[in-house]
Amino acid sequence: MNDSFQLADELLASRLILGSGGVPSMQVLDEVLAASQTAMCTVAMRRAHPGTHGSILDVLERRGVRVLPNTAGCRTAHEAVRTAQLAREALGTNWVKLEVVADDRTLLPDPFELLEAAEALVAQGFVVLPYTNDDPVLARRLQQAGCAAVMPLGSPIGTGLGIGNPDNIAMIVSEARVPVILDAGIGTASDAALAMELGCDAVLLASAITRAQHPAQMAAAMAAAVSAGRLARGAGRIPKRHHARASSPTEGMPVL
Amino acid sequence: MNDSFQLADELLASRLILGSGGVPSMQVLDEVLAASQTAMCTVAMRRAHPGTHGSILDVLERRGVRVLPNTAGCRTAHEAVRTAQLAREALGTNWVKLEVVADDRTLLPDPFELLEAAEALVAQGFVVLPYTNDDPVLARRLQQAGCAAVMPLGSPIGTGLGIGNPDNIAMIVSEARVPVILDAGIGTASDAALAMELGCDAVLLASAITRAQHPAQMAAAMAAAVSAGRLARGAGRIPKRHHARASSPTEGMPVL
Amino acid sequence: MNDSFQLADELLASRLILGSGGVPSMQVLDEVLAASQTAMCTVAMRRAHPGTHGSILDVLERRGVRVLPNTAGCRTAHEAVRTAQLAREALGTNWVKLEVVADDRTLLPDPFELLEAAEALVAQGFVVLPYTNDDPVLARRLQQAGCAAVMPLGSPIGTGLGIGNPDNIAMIVSEARVPVILDAGIGTASDAALAMELGCDAVLLASAITRAQHPAQMAAAMAAAVSAGRLARGAGRIPKRHHARASSPTEGMPVL
Amino acid sequence: MNDSFQLADELLASRLILGSGGVPSMQVLDEVLAASQTAMCTVAMRRAHPGTHGSILDVLERRGVRVLPNTAGCRTAHEAVRTAQLAREALGTNWVKLEVVADDRTLLPDPFELLEAAEALVAQGFVVLPYTNDDPVLARRLQQAGCAAVMPLGSPIGTGLGIGNPDNIAMIVSEARVPVILDAGIGTASDAALAMELGCDAVLLASAITRAQHPAQMAAAMAAAVSAGRLARGAGRIPKRHHARASSPTEGMPVL
Amino acid sequence: MQLTINGDPHTVAAQLTLAELIDRHRSAGNTSPGGRGSAAAVDGEVVPRAEWSTFAVRDGQAIEILTAVQGG
Amino acid sequence: MQLTINGDPHTVAAQLTLAELIDRHRSAGNTSPGGRGSAAAVDGEVVPRAEWSTFAVRDGQAIEILTAVQGG
Amino acid sequence: MQLTINGDPHTVAAQLTLAELIDRHRSAGNTSPGGRGSAAAVDGEVVPRAEWSTFAVRDGQAIEILTAVQGG
Amino acid sequence: MQLTINGDPHTVAAQLTLAELIDRHRSAGNTSPGGRGSAAAVDGEVVPRAEWSTFAVRDGQAIEILTAVQGG
To answer: In angstroms, rounded to a whole number, what is the distance separating the alpha carbons of residues D41 and D43?
Structure first.
């Protein structure tokens, strides 16, 4: 199955998008990129420290992986817009993973600042990929604002709790006119498979891989899981039923 | 990752075992075998009808897939033992997927007849792979009886409800000294991945593939899912936590 | 246990608030009010039809139940504010259950219109009880706007799916400085008990009672469930553990 | 609602049966008996220690609560039968809560020893109330053996995990011809309510009350929860639906 | 004069107060005497009950008369 | 003589071996030559393939001839 | 004579009935007069209360004296 | 003159362009030659790279120099 998918004007070769946060070293990042076969990876924008050698950008470039700057850490639309502008200057991309969180404890998106930032960035020509909660109404508003995708959380960032409310994700998918990318809370492979089975177009995850005991192996697991879930969604699963149904013929039984 | 695994004295090249029940045609079975990359597939023993051409055995042989006869439809230890003996005669294998169900409505295993049959068949030199419920105590007894694996259900046969009680499966895995094969109730890829994440050694499924809208595609999904779950189990997932944890650095934020 | 609770400047004698929607007759409403022992019941504001006799207000008054007008059906802050003003004129109460939904299919609240309406109504001296989604950030904003309570949904109105995301409700409770009232999705008694165990101060429900086969009996069930959940919350439940723990003494066993 | 129920030849005045295990003192037991309004309470049989004053029997007698001896700690049918005989001698009751567990780690019932003990005790004229797992087939066998009730677990003893597999409990209820009593794993009030909503006739619990921070308050919570669940079961809950349904009239909206 | 009452067109004699209009509307209607339980808006603006008897309705206005019903 | 084959009554000539009986049953049947994939029980007892050609069927016996089909 | 009572070795005078033995064991013990709430087994066999006063304990026997405690 | 660079106070010679300032900051730093991967804001306003070499830094300004790091 061809797992590429269209995001804005780009055809991405993988439905697994990587977040680089939490990765213990550039060496591990390199292994994770290879094992995940991802086509895009997030970076954050932070103050440059004099004297540090090497850059995450070199690792991404070597692997041919597209860089996706985020606005992690921003609490207001103002900060997020500025950060996106700086990222565009620094990285030469008008794509941005838009994060505007309400506080550091929950890291949940602030619907009001988020929508305001999305509207401003769309107006400035950005391809906006907003990290949002699982509220179908907010997802709709972000699409109306011109976002190129919606990226609802499964559960709060870094928790590994999986998809807390599958009904909400399914509702977002059912009315989406842009790609839906599940973007937080994934803990293990079956979570990623479930996201795809619910109809998400892609999965974005960081901690589940970068903080696993064996990151590269988990990256391979996630790649397989996204593929599995995508295939299963298209294959048309059997309906759930509450009564058993024999899979062996009930006729032709001998008398023994 | 090398997904082969040791079952009795055999090294199987795949951790996905196929049930052939419910497959709409030999042509579809052939496609499903190819897509699933399975190494073993179940058959049932039924009265031979004069005049029917071709055999499922030919399809399996062509694909190099090991045949695993079952005792589906048997309600007593007596019937199951006889059926296993007939299968051994017919197919030249002393392996048997042992099913002894209590009734046709639930298709749940009868613990008493099952254990009795298992003991008898082990004594007669069979490699016994019993379909059992998710009771850790019964699983233990079947192992003590000399079964070569235990095959607990996730949920009743054909329901597609997935794994109803993950704690029970995890408990069975934690004390198993033979392979644990999840053997009923799988509905979609994430269910199969979860089974492997819980520590199962393999997954056996039929309806989820054979009755899907596109069986071959679902077979590919299941193969990927088993692989994903197996890798994830080994990769050491992040622990679940109830509070968010940033994946981007919290230091180095600019003032904008 | 004294189940009264303080809401705004009022001490309500029951933690079960009734929605009157869906009730088949005034007679049934009367029975339900009695069985539920509720102290407050919602009404909607609709065009008066000439020639109709009797009013829901008479039933509520006879039972001594406080009337709580809602803004059901409103899609904009403008409509909701006007509706609240009209309700205040009609009913002589400045309390309002504020509903501003995004569409008729999901009946989910629109965060933007909701907050705008809440701010306007608070400024006009209303006691605002907003129906909101389960987003902790929106709940926080509504409190900051001066709402007298927050009323998150368990699941969409009328679905009976219970509490889809208990973690979110618990998060809202953990940081709330006003009462938290679970306000949609309850299907049966255990859902209501769970809401209270999560720390909600009260439960508001309509369909679960009014559309049950036997509304008055379900009303009694809900009253008991709210009480049960409230008591259990305060009683300090045992922690969940994954290994069994004997409740009978393990010492003093005879040799038999 | 009259919550009494018929068990064997007895009409019990409460559907909440108490286990006395884990209670910190006779004083607390007394409070718990009062708050729970239970009509029956279990005791274990252990070696008598010279010099101890007072007996649990006095507390039960004072409260008019029927004593139900158990066979906790027994690992074989032989031990359990002997223990039941001794309890009958000691307490003058032919009722017994039959427990035969497979090991001390899981405290799960051993299906084989359990059924053997049940058959023996029924033959000796006992009213046998077996603690069993949630396997519908074993429940059926215990009924066929003449047990006066079946008492499936929700989850392992003392875990407080609630009802791990509601489908299994519902299946047991659907075909039961004797009372079904949920007998382990309850952690909080909503668990008990759910058990009753699934159709159980009663709930038996110990740790959830005796080890709660405030046992008497939790006892009151459980009494209310059992009542709530029982009422809700009879009231005919609304069906679950995945799409919202307005509870307020959609007609008669003004233009504002 | 022409009015819209609760969405429907009505022709009424001129010189009518809102109080009179509402009274007619609910002749044998579902609200108590004195209008308890009902409220009115004229062209989208709420008119307090105290002003009903002095509020002169004008040609072309849209009047909404609301009352409490079961809901929510 | 009278036999029951796979549950149905059959009348066959006397002096028939099990091998001959099975051969007839599957004329153009679904098992390979030599009986690969099939097995037989007579009055509930399994008869090993090696004995088919010498096993003489007797009047009144019930024969079950089984083969592998999809299932499980 | 030597007895095992509730798992512990005891030496007692000969010619003791079970009733006497149990009485001594629970002197100031946790069962009511007349033995309500307690039961006894000798060498694994239950001895009904009615037989306690005539049941002569013999050297080497293992006696279990049980009572009801909280549990379950 | 006094500047704030990435939150820290710095004293630098007058007549410095932003390009020169950034160059000093990253001497042996973590960005490629020509500033690939980094961006700058002065008093909160983004300064496009093309203007760095002509942008004269003034006393008292706050300069933020950012670069891409792992995150998200």
So the answer is: 7
Measured in angstroms, the CA of D6 and the nearest CA of chain E are apart by 41
Q: What are the C-alpha distances in Å from A243 to residues A107, B108, D166, D167?
A: 42, 11, 14, 10
At B48 the pLDDT is: 86
Tokens encoding D174: 């659907």
Q: Pick the residue of D247, D251, D253, D256 with the most C CBs within 10 A to test the interface with C by mutation.
A: D247
Q: Which D positions 206-225 lie with beta carbon below 8 A of chain C?
A: 206-208, 210-215, 217-218, 220-225
CB atoms within 10 A of CB F15: 9
Tens digit of pLDDT for each residue in F26-61? 753 444 545 568 899 999 999 999 999 999 999 999
Q: Give G22 to chain D, closest Cα distance, Å.
A: 10
Residue D228's closest CA among D192, D203, D256, D198? D192
Hey, is the C-beta of E30 within 8 angstroms of any chain C C-beta?
yes
Q: What is the DSSP letter of C217?
A: H
pLDDT of A50 strictly over 80: no
Q: Do D248 and C159 count as a contact with CB atoms less than 8 A apart? A: no
User: Rounded to whole angstroms, how far apart are CA atoms C70 and A21?
Assistant: 46
Contact in structure between A40 and A19 (CB atoms under 8 Å) = no
pLDDT band (50, 70, 90) for residue C45: very high
- 3-class SS of residue H34: helix
Residue G15: predicted pLDDT: 85
Establish if G9 touches chain C: CB-CB under 8 angstroms. Answer: no
Instruction: Supply the DSSP symbol for C239.
Output: P
Residue of D18, D31, D55, D91 to mutate when probing chain G, most G C-beta within 10 A: D55
Calculate ∠ Cα D48-D53-D56, nearest 5°.
75
Beta carbons of B182 and B169 less than 8 angstroms apart: yes
Q: Give φ, ψ of C182 to 5 degrees.
A: -70, 125
Residue for token pair 């990151």: A215
Q: At what angle do helices D189-197 and C215-235 cross, to 10 degrees?
A: 150
Interface confidence, given as ipTM, is 0.93
Looking at the predicted structure, is the pLDDT value of residue C51 above 70?
no
Q: Does F43 touch chain B (CB under 8 A)?
A: no
State yes or no: chains F and A have 3 or more CB pairs below 8 A.
yes
The shortest CB-CB distance from B158 to any of A229, A237, A244 is to: A244
Beta strands B10-12 and D10-12, pairing class: unpaired
CB C164 within 8 A of CB C194: no
Pairwise CB contact (< 8 Å): D106 & B164: no
Q: pTM for the full model?
A: 0.94
- Tell me the CA end-to-end span of chain H in Å, nearest whole number: 37
Count of beta carbons in the 10 Å neighbourhood of residue G32: 13
Element (H, E) at D129: strand D127-132
Catalytic residue among B7, B29, B72, B97: B97
Which is it for the CA torsion C75, C81, C87, C93, positive or negative? positive
- Given the structure tokens 């705004």, which residue do they identify? C8
Contact criterion met (CB < 8 Å) for H46 and A50: no
Active-site residue identified among A15, A88, A97, A141: A97
3-state secondary structure of C208: helix
Residues in chain C: 256
CB-based contacts of A225: which residues, under 8 Å, 6+ apart?
A: A189, A190, A191, A192, A193, A196, B189, B190, B193, B224, B225, B228, B229, B232
Among F31, F48, F71, the residue with its CB nearest the CB of B89 is F48
Pairing of strands C127-132, H45-47: unpaired
Cα separation, C20 vs C68, whole angstroms: 10
- Please list every residue in chain B whose beta carbon sits closer than 8 Å to the beta carbon of residue F8: none
Check pLDDT > 50 for residue A210: yes
